[in-house]
Amino acid sequence: MDNFVNLAKQGIQAYERSHSDVSKTGGREYNTPNHSNGTQDRPQFDDDEVVNTASREGSGDNSLFSSALSFIKQNKGEHEQPIDEADVQHAHRKAYEEDSANSLNAGSLGSAAALQVLKRFTASGGDNSGSSSQSQLISLAMAEASKLFDKSGGTSSGNKQDAVNGAAMTVMKLLVQSKFSEGATGGGNSGGLGGLMGLASKLI
Predict the structure, then answer these.
(1) Is 105 helix (H, G, I), strand (E, B) or coil?
(2) In this predicted model, what pLDDT tens digit does every residue of 90-125 receive, in sequence order?
(3) Contact in structure between 178 and 195 (CB atoms under 8 Å)
(4) CB of 41 within 8 A of CB of 179?
């Protein structure tokens, strides 16, 4: 765990150095206390950007990913529900170490995919596209879930939409709960990236 946390710190620092313009990394949008819609307690995504990225990186058309975004918006009450960390870690192990993702239900497969992306994301410090860290994370988690579902040939229960929904909800829970625990999504030039240490420490 310590090794990964150190790696995550390096990734965050690298991302912050490469994104000094707050307006490009989402700093204003995600960190402004007087958010216009009164939703400052929730990460705000550019839906088109998220859907297009997920569709480009994943396996499925835009409707698969836009439906997942609608799912998390319609189920806001789930955002604060605790994540069963042991279950997510178990699902990740089954999917990525034992190559038996098809033994999982679709929601667990989605959670495993979200954790896999979180590991890669924090290790690499994100990318240099200028998009926000939150948008990247949820886009790539949904994309990973769609590819993992296809690779596994299905799951013990649920469909591909359920898997993508599960990945999106896992990311949203982590972002919301990390933000609440730290009191902010990030400062200065972070573009909301400060909470990623909370995400990493929760599950790794």
Answers:
(1) strand
(2) 999 999 999 999 999 999 999 999 999 988 877 766
(3) yes
(4) yes
Q: Whole-angstrom Cα distance, residue 128 to residue 100?
A: 33
Global pTM reads 0.74
Distance of alpha carbon 191 from alpha carbon 188, whole angstroms: 8
Strand partners, 105: 157
Contacts of 110 (CB under 8 A, 6+ apart): 141, 145, 162, 163, 164, 165, 166, 167, 168, 169, 170
157 DSSP 8-state letter? B
Q: What is the pLDDT of residues 151-198, one digit of tens each?
A: 999 999 999 999 999 999 999 988 887 764 443 334 333 434 455 555
Which tokens sit at 157?
A: 């229960």
